[in-house]
Amino acid sequence: MKILVPISNVPDTTSKIAFTNGDTQFNTAGVQFIINPYDEWFALVRALELKEAGKAEKVTLLHVGLADSDATIRKGFALGADDGVRIDADSQDAYFVAEQIAKYAKDNGYDLILTGKETINYNGSSVGAMIAGFMDLPFISLATKLEIEGNKASLEHDVDGGIQVVECELPLVASCAKGMAEQRIPNMKGIMAARTKPLTVLSATTTEALTSVKSFALSTGRTTCKMIDENNMDELVNLLHTEAKVI
After folding, report:
1. Nearest to 37 by CA among 59, 7, 81
2. Chain mean position to CA 170
3. Residue 127 to residue 116: CA distance in whole angstroms
C-alpha cells in the first residue's frame, strides 16, 4: 500500500499577522513557516504508524507551492516520510490545489490519501473532499481513527451524540482530526536523513483557479466590557437598545 499525504505550508501560530499592498497580500517578512499541524500531527503521523505496522510500504508527501516551501517539506522527511513531491505553483485557491493533487495521485496509483481536517491559515476544510471528488473515490471527513486490514479500511468520526464507524475498500481519501494520532518530534537520525531524501519538483498542470483574494482584514479582537450596577436596570435596558450588537 502506498500512502500520499498532502501538506500545507502555513505561518507558525505565534506569528504576528500583517498585510501589505493595500491589504491584498499576507506580509511574510520575519514569519516562520511550518507544516500545517493537522496535516503533520494527525495525517502524516498516522501514515507513518501504518508503515511501521507493516500495512504500508511507502509514505509520500505532496505540496503545491513554491521553492520557499522546500524546508517545510524536509521537516516532514525528518519525521519519517520516504520522499516528497512539490508541484511548482503559487495559489491560494482550494480548487486549484485539490486538482493538482488529484491529477498527480491518479497518475501514481496511491491506495490511501490522508489530509489534515483543515489548514490553520484559511480553515477551509475543502481540499480533501475536492480531491476525492476529482478522483471519484470515497471520502471520510474528520476521521478520528483509522485501521487497515488487507484492502479494507475501518474509520471512526464523531457525530452528534456519538461515534460513527465507517468501512470501505481502498483506495479512499480521508481528512484527519484530533484522536487520529499523537504528535511526534523528529529525532537526530531523522533530521540527518531528511537532507538526502528525494524531493521531486513538477510543473503544475493547467487548472483555472475559481477564487481570488480581494483583501484581508485583521480581527477586531475582544472589545471592552461595560459593567452596569445590578440595581440600575433602566440603564441596562437602554444600552441593550442603543449600543448592544448582535454577533
Report:
1. 7
2. 21
3. 9
Contacts of 27-35 with C-beta under 8 Å, sequence gap 24+, read 33/9, 33/68, 33/69, 33/71, 33/72, 34/9, 34/10, 34/72, 34/75, 35/7, 35/8, 35/9, 35/10, 35/72, 35/75, 35/76
The letter for the amino acid at 39 is D
Cell digits of residue 105: 495521485
Residue listed under C-alpha cell 491518479? 106
Is 3.40.50.620 the CATH classification of the domain at 2-214? yes
The candidate with the shortest Cα–Cα distance to 190, out of 80, 90, 52, is 80
Q: Cα angle vertex 209, ends 100, 87, to 5°?
A: 30
- Per the listing, cell 475559481 goes with 210
Residue 107 host element (H or E): helix 94-108
46-79 residue pLDDT tens: 999 999 999 999 999 999 999 999 999 999 999 9
Bridge partners, 60 (sequence order): 4, 83
For the stretch 186-199, pLDDT in tens is: 999 999 999 999 99
Contacts of 41 (CB under 8 A, 6+ apart): 116, 181, 182, 183, 184
Q: Where are the domains of the chain?
A: 2-214
C-alpha cell of residue 236: 441596562
Give 229: exposed, middle or buried? Use CB within 10 Å, 0-12, 13-18, 19+.
Answer: exposed
